[in-house]
Amino acid sequence: xxxxxxxxxxxxxxxxxxxxxxxxxxxxxxxxxxxxxxxxxxxxxxxxxxxxxxxxxxxxxxxxxxxxxxxxxxxxxxxxxxxxxxxxxxxxxxxxxxxxxxxxxxxxxxxxxxxxxxxxxxxxxxxxxxxxxxxxxxxxxxxxxxxxxxxxxxxxx
Length: 157
What we know:
The protein is globular. Strands 1, 2, 3, 4, 5, 8, 9 and 10 form an 8-stranded mixed β-sheet that branches. The chain contains 3 helices and 10 strands. It is an alpha+beta fold. It has helices at 2-7, 9-24, 87-101; strands at 33-42, 53-55, 60-70, 75-82, 107-110, 118-120, 125-127, 130-131, 145-148, 153-156. It folds into 2 domains: 1-29; 31-156, no CATH class.
C-alpha cells in the first residue's frame, strides 16, 4: 500500500472511482467546486512529537486532517499536519497541491479559519482577502484569494 501511495496509484484509483460516481449522479467526471476544512484528532503518546502538536482551540494534543472534498462529499485530497498548525498556514500547501493535481477546480469554499494571505504560486505575489459582498470579486485565473468574513467564504483560483 505504501508503494502504491508513493507512486500515486492510490490517488489515481480514488480519482477514477470519484469520476464514475459523479457521472452516475449526472455530473461531470471532474469537480470544479470544492470544500476545505480540518479536523483535529488525538494522537497516542507513541506518535512522534515531531508529527503532533497541541490545538489550543480544541484542547487536543495530536494531528490535524486537512480535507478537500467536492460538493458531493467525495474526497479529493487529505493532508495530515501537527494539530498546532493553523488552518490558513496549512491551506497554502493544500491549495498548491490541489492546483497541481486538479487544475480544473475554480472555487474552494472555506470557513473563516482559512482567512488570511495566500501566496499566488504562479506569479509569486500575495493576494489579500476580499470582503464578502453581493457581487463577489473574481480574481485572475492564476491567483487564489479567500473571501474573509465571520461566516463561510470562497477561495477562488
